[in-house]
Amino acid sequence: MKKVVQLFDKVDYVFFFVAKIAVLIMMFITTADAVMRYLFNQALVGAYHFSEKYLMVIIVFFSLSYVMKMKGHISIDLFIKYLPKKLVKVLDMFYTLLAAILMFFIGYQAMMMTQEAYVNHYVATGIISWPTWLSWIWVPIGAYLFTLRLLFIFLQLLFNFNQVETEEDRVTE
Amino acid sequence: MTIAIPMFLLLVLLATGMPIAFSMGIAGAVGLLFIGGTDLFLGIIQTTPYDSVAVFLFTTIPMFILMAELMTASDMTKDIFNASNKWMGHLPGGLGIATVFAGAGLGAVSGSSTASAATLATSAVPEMKKYGYKSHFAMGVSSISGTLAIMIPPSIVLILYGILTDTGVGSLLIAGIIPGIITAIGYVITILYWVKRDPSVAPKIPQKVPLNERLQSIKPIWPVLILMSVVIGGIYAGIVTATEAGALGAFATFVIALLMRKLKVKGISKALNNTLRSTAMIMLIIIGAMIFGYFLTATQVTQKMIGFIGDSGMSKWVVLSIVIILYLILGVFMDQVAILILTLPLTFPLIVSLGFNPIWFGIIVTKTAEIGLVTPPVGMNVFVASGAAGIDTAVAFKGVTRFVVTDLIILLILILFPFISTWLPSMMLGS
Amino acid sequence: LVACGHSEPTQKEEASEGESKEAASQGETIKIKIADSFPNSHTISKYATLPWIDRIEELGEGKIEVEYYPAEQLGKADSLLDVAKNKVADITYVGPLYVSDTMPLSGVVGNPGLVKDAISGTKAYNKLVHEDLYEVELKPHGVKPLWAAALNPYQIVNSKHPVKEIKDFKGLKIRTSGGLQEQLMQNWGVTPVSVPAPEIYTAWDRGTLDGTLISLFSWPGYQIEKLAKYSTVNAKLSSFGVMYVVNEEVWESWPEEVRQAVEKASNEASDMMAQAIVDHENALMEEYKEQGVEFYELPEEELQKWDEELEPFNRKWAENLDAKGMPGTEILEKFTQYNEEFSK
Ligand code: NA
Ligand code: NA
């Protein structure tokens, strides 16, 4: 189990790394577009569309799962202090599973959209022809990755249910 | 009934520790299944996640956060605090006042209040503790000074408001300048008053820093001044649109930091990690809020409520008061981004139809968002500052109480004198 | 409970059609959910959608109750086709230019040089949608058109100099919304700039833009009159299409009299909208003239020159679609022909 999770973390980091690169690319092309327009009266064709429909989607969906590992999806910890520890653990498990189910449906529905766009060759035309499926595909990939992450967290919580909580395991943020 | 159950579910999920984004997504999904079956549920979740993300205006979120993170990674933010410290440290509560100034300075280059609060907490709190300041004072000042970042331009909240209401983003950003300065002054007065009433929270630091050393401290902040002019000047000179300003600001920070040899690969990598962490967190909350929002509109309860208020013949000031109180109450227990998405499509047309100025209303909403950022149980700035400083949230919540009172007074002033918000944009942009 | 539908009576019908038709004829009301992206104050909803909804309810004689979701309350403009397809709402607005990837043929309304004005353009587009586009492009998505309209074509509006010939475009920074517009402007020497709509005013005011392609009707939303100095009145740069569609399965589930009421109201809606747009724009133009905006006509021979320049763009557009196995040329020819017929 531990090895599987470690392997998954590595794979997940590859996607996260792609998102990091996407952030840098967005910074460069948006700046280049503005500066070229201002100085040379020449826009960087497609920068806007590429940032909006491709980079944004990659940045968000390729980082959702890894940010969960970083415990970055915040929750309210003010009240759970007053709840019995066992109950909090049970709720945690249950909630993680619920979230996994929701993410799975999101991934599945987005996969259907991607497939429809791919099969029918949907293209947004302009000076550049932008394939729609290449804008969508990051959603199912990211959502499925996130689903897996949540399932692993669920299983870890399940197997470690009777262990004494260590500082590392704390799920609160 | 159909609306009560998911609403109640949302509150339970939030209170029992489910991440905010999932609480809203799950409660919304249950609500959609409840009122419209699987068709409605599957239909909404098919397009909502993508549609909420693939929005050009939202590129400002990662870009402005990246700019703030790059500044932190290259120690520029620390330099701001150091300089304010050298100049104001000897005053009563001086380190606190220095933190407010640093918060305003950071606010002028960063659009993210949480990034700002985290920076202040890491640099200012240890310094204050070193001189014997009380923890709740230090945490309160850091958390509240972070909120200046969403009033002083650039501001993610004002940009989001512009997106959701089709109000010009440029005018909104400029409108935040004077209210932001007034807010900072209000915080300084609060500190002075607090320290006068209870000197033990902030012991006096006897030695005054010599003038020479003070002047020296200004030197390292020139990059920050350049970045301020790049962002605001870039918009004003027409080089960039308000949306693109974040990317230009991040790029300028990147270049300056590299030239000064203050940024290494490791620093860049960490800045990118933090950028994605905040971006993914905010965007997932936006997706959850959109799902819950579609549930709310599908029940038509909110539309009917707003319609009822609109048709009731109440005076416009009564309606405005109801709306503002609603924002303050929501701000107590919900995330600011989620509140804007859920409410603005309904409150904005109502407020504008009553003849109120849309830019002014944007500033009022932002002020309530500032307050919401530091009130328990969901006080993002307090969460982040506590996390960064390693101090319990309860201590920080205690420390912000007085500042919340100040904020409420400033809110009242902004409501009563709309020209504070509208004068500058009308001067600069003629709108 | 989970099985219970998006709007109760309609769902029951899906469960058992016959039963519900009986129920309806016994005097039960049918709830129809209509969703679009226009805020209530928007000209399209004021002059077309809201009167149309009133008319549906009026013709329904108490048997139809419309629930209206304006302002993207059930989905973004780009996704409203999916909203109808997925039965999130029964009837939705579809902006062909927002779904140019899924419904490229319907986007012909946005091609330059075809629509001359809202009245003839609407008649032409409404006909094209019902007679030609329905089979090839709406039916596959499970939706059926109710009515369609075309707005007055976009004009070139700027604050630098009057654009009277094609060479006057050179060097201007013009906001476009992608697609053919962007290609055309680039070709005529313009620097096409992409700016989100809420930022048009500031970007123009600060000189990031010199102007925009826009129809008069959208001026108030962006305070264009405060910045614009020159505007053409008769250029045929591109038109904006409006379409309201209904989910086919939902449509089939409605009793005959409900369908008739919706159809009748819809047939009236498109002409009503075109006339209202033309009147409204004329009033706006008078108002803006007084505020000092210069409106000017392009002479007939110049317009012909523009048309000649535009022709290859349209041809290329059609050929691209032909190559993908879609009747691009056929649709282009029909739409050109309908426009000519109705503008005589
Ligand atoms: Na700011
Ligand atoms: Na709060």
Automatic annotation (TrEMBL), chain A:
- Taxonomically, the superkingdom here is Bacteria
Gene Ontology annotations of biological process type: C4-dicarboxylate transport
What is one Pfam family matched by this protein? DctQ
* Main subcellular localisation: membrane
User: What kind of membrane protein is this, topologically?
Assistant: Multi-pass membrane protein
Q: Does the keyword Translocase apply?
A: no
Q: Which GO terms describe its cellular component?
A: plasma membrane
Entry's InterPro entries?
A: DctQ, TRAP_DctQ
**Record carries keyword Cell membrane:** yes
Task: Give one GO term, molecular function aspect.
Answer: transmembrane transporter activity
Cell compartments where the protein resides: Cell inner membrane
Name the record gives this protein = Tripartite ATP-independent periplasmic transporters DctQ component domain-containing protein
Q: Which organism is it from?
A: Pueribacillus theae
From TrEMBL, chain B:
Q: Name one Pfam family in it.
A: DctM
GO terms of molecular function: transmembrane transporter activity
Please classify the protein's predominant subcellular localization into one broad category. Answer: membrane
**Residues passing through the membrane, by range:** 52-73, 93-125, 137-164, 170-195, 245-263, 275-297, 317-334, 346-366, 378-397, 404-424
Its Gene Ontology cellular component terms are: plasma membrane
Q: Supply the NCBIfam families for this chain.
A: dctM
Q: What is this protein called?
A: C4-dicarboxylate ABC transporter permease
Q: Which organism is it from?
A: Pueribacillus theae
